[in-house]
Design a protein that fits this description.
By secondary structure, the protein is an alpha+beta fold. The protein has five helices and 19 strands. The chain folds into two domains: 3-52 and 60-132 and 269-289, 3-Layer(aba) Sandwich (Rossmann fold), CATH 3.40.50.10330; 134-266, Probable inorganic polyphosphate/atp-NAD kinase, domain 2 (Tumour Suppressor Smad4), CATH 2.60.200. The strands form three sheets. Strands 3, 8, 9, 10, 11, 12, 13, 14, 15, 16, 17 and 18 form a twelve-stranded mixed β-sheet that branches. β1, α1 and β2 (32-37) form a beta-alpha-beta unit. It is globular and about 60 Å long.
Amino acid sequence: MPSAGLIFNDGKELALKTALSIQNLLEKSGYKVVRASSSGGMLGFANPDQHMRTLGYNACVPEGFNSSMQLAVVLGGDGTVLSAARQTAPIGVPILTINTGHLGFLAETYLPDVDKALEQILSNQWEVEERTSLIVSVMRGDQRRWEALCLNEMALHREPLTSMCHFEISIGRHAPVDISADGVILSTPTGSTAYSLSAGGPVITPDCPVFQLTPIAPHSLASRALVFSDSEPVTVFPATPERLMMVVDGTAGCYVWPEDRVLLRKSNHPVRFIRLSDHEFFQVLGNKLGWGLPHIAKPDKN
């Protein structure tokens, strides 16, 4: 019997209702359905006074999920998709993302088209697009203090009411660099349209095998976004006496102390998105962010 996962935001009534409907349809079509809350991939922010999350990134895989699953259906907004990515990428299960939130930048389809989407799934009329993911580890000596899988970005920045920070950054075999800024962002191509874009970084198409380093409010005009090969591991040393805040994909993170370092490397487990039609990236940019749309002058009020 084929099996499918069902990941949903159990804090939203609409997602719960839709999940039940999809489960019934899949079970009638001969699938075994395993349900999971997207909260399992929302790691939260580690309290510095409590035990750090030393588990590896594959600890987010829900109970009952395994690599033999044909797919997992994800119901929710972009935050739910980011959580589901952590839950499915380690076992290679492709995800069909159905938006029940607002922007839905990572959504493949929407609620009004659910029946059509499931019809395509059941008739095997779909393809898989792989997106690069990052492994983010906070290290102290040889000890791993915190770790997570990341689809968008890792942001390391100062706390409110503290001064500008210094970061010593080592990229692969290259000479270390020093950046003075409020923070730094290390993003994947998928994350180039998120926090990094707001900080002045360029948009990168998802098929480019690169990472992007973007300073947040840099002190120097010479500190600008840098794009480099994703085969290069990155180590960030916080060269500042105060603790810093690290946030991964906007939904998880921890404090980073002066004696820590942040290690970032490309994961061997990409996030696998189900595509029901040709995924035209520039069209998505236009529809979601207004990129490349023709300029239309405002009418003269006189």
